[in-house]
Amino acid sequence: MNFRKKNGILFVAPVRFLYRRDAEETRKGQIYMNKSVFIAEKPSVAQEFAKALKVKTTRHDGYLESENTIVTWCVGHLVTMSYPEVYDPKLKKWSLDTLPFLPEEFKYELIDDVKKQFRIVERLLNREDVTCIYVCTDSGREGEYIYRLVDQMAHVGDKDKRRVWIDSQTEEEILRGIREAKPLSEYDHLADAAYLRAKEDYLMGINFSRLLTLKYGQSMSNYLGTKYTVISVGRVMTCVLGMVVRREREIRYFVKTPFYRVLAVADVLGREVEAEWRVTEESVAWQKPVLYKENGFKTKEDAQKLITYIERVQPMEAEVTAIERKTEKKNPPLLYNLAELQNDCSRMFKISPDETLKIVQELYEKKLVTYPRTDARVLSTAVAKEINRNISGLKQVPAFAVFADKVLAMGSYKKIASTRYTNDKQITDHYAIIPTGQGLGALRSLHPQSESVYEAICRRFLSIFYPPAQYRKLSMTLKVRTESFYASFKVLTDEGYLKVAGIPKKAQNTQGQKDDETEDVGCDTAFLDMLKDLKKGSHLPVKRLMIKEGETSPPKRYNSGSLILAMENAGQLIEDEELRAQIKGSGIGTSATRAEILKKLVSIDYLALNKKTQIVTPTQLGEMVYEVVDNSIRSLLNPELTASWEKGLTYVAEGSITSDVYMEKLERFISDRTGRVMVLHNQYQLRGNYDRCAAFYKKEQRPSAKGKTIKKVSSNAKKQTDKVSTE
Fold first, then answer.
1. Which residues make Cβ contacts (< 8 Å) with residue 270, sequence separation at least 6?
2. Residue 537 sits in which domain range?
3. Counting beta carbons within 10 angstroms of the beta carbon of residue 683, is it exposed (0 to 12), middle (13 to 18) or buried (19 or more)?
4. Which positions ≥6 away from 115 have C-beta within 8 Å?
5. Residue 710 contacts by C-beta under 8 Å, 6 or more apart in sequence?
6. What's the whole-model pTM score?
7. How many domains, the chain?
């Protein structure tokens, strides 16, 4: 242990950094060394901090201690909000007379399962020899909330409290975070936002769940043949339910529209090539109502009429009226944030979003990747300057050694700070998820799924240092009589970043198109080289004309990953331009909670998740709840409301608005909507809506206790609703 004095203040340096110590105190003739407490979010993280500090500790029940350092931990949340009956025993019984429930002061209590650890932490934080507290919970809103509740319940006095903010759990990053730890007070606005988020979810969940259950629960139970039905409502989860139900109904009521395209098969240097007809001003079909868009007809008969018109002149010959040759570049995509990673893992590996989060959290705790709960898809300038460390580390991984070597040899990493992959303005709390290049010993113990996720993160990361993929493209216009036909050819000439990212199996030489759009034809380089002699004015024989039938497609159902992305980008769904601009970049929920929201909706039987395909659909119960909310508090279903609340929390975190202003708005909203629902008497009218929903679900039946049959629909207990979700 190293000691030194500066300006009369004693500094202790047990490792390569220095942190402040007050002078030793003498109490009752005994000398006490002032100690620092490091409090992490979970035991495994605390262990990593202890290792990084390089202090010789003794293990105790719930903490580690050395001469001048104590390392302890939470086990996630230790404190939670109290149920309404804690405020008043009368509130245990659900009654319209007690709504809205808007306490002036919120009550909190210890979580039963972790009371022991809280008492340990409480005692440590309040020890007389502890003068400095380093808050090392996860660097985000939820991590801030976890510690602040502990601090509040433990009644920690006036001590030096510092916030450790890190992006990975590597030793260097931990030491940097401790060295640069800021006063906890600098994060007060973030803490305000965290408290408000919890209060908002609590109040909306308690009030609206009780309100709608009391108003509509009995009528739903009568319809379903169940004993009781609890209608569970949440700020985010109800909105997500709305998104899924609306998408299902779009698919359900979608009317397919057939269309007919006309193709000319031309002989191009001995190879048959298909060219697609499109209407022009010279066409006999110009501005006629028989058209389906610009490249087809509504009926097969009208398509045939065009063919008959063209075939009147024999032999059929096409003139090349335009030809264009160009090189296309495709840049590497931006880095992963949590939502993008969850989407890709759902698509590629059929892993649910909550499973993906668990996996990437494991990778984070094993020091393999940076902080997972991030919305950013770019690097910070500071990280970009030292990114060679991350790349160099990957040289030790056989699967990426060649790619990492090439990146270092090219030197492309030196300019990454000036590219679109680095942008400090697009980062709030954390930069994108990238490999640290460390902790590689843990790779041997990873589950195959975890290996796949780690590989995806590494490939996306290394891709940004590679050049764009390059394609050669040739487009030409053919004219037969007065009609124009179009064809385009595309070939991959330089894989660029695709060498590390992988070439999509679906179409290695073409980009995916919609059913009614012209596609680039994948071809080989040799054929494209043959076409170099093709010039404007050339004539090509047309071997035949044909009709290709197609039909419009309904929108696709959400899978678990695309639903997470839709939640992240919910602001884009807003039609009002002014509001959309106001909440640009805001989604519904947060990167840390979206997966849990989806999981809860499945657990309470509002949504169904196919584990093999990861396709998400509503259940009958979910659709009925949708109908109830749609006919009572419709705004809860809309992204506008949820995204605007989320934006408000951002403003609080930024210090733009105060907690009081936010709470005033929240309480007014709850009171207003509660009052409106109180005067509604539309329970009977909803039966027609239930009937329409039920028609699309197979009625599975099970025997009741009395031998009768009732519809098999799961119900929820009241206590489940009062356990308000995280969002």
1. none
2. 258-325+474-489+519-551
3. middle
4. none
5. 224, 225, 226, 701, 702, 704
6. 0.85
7. 4
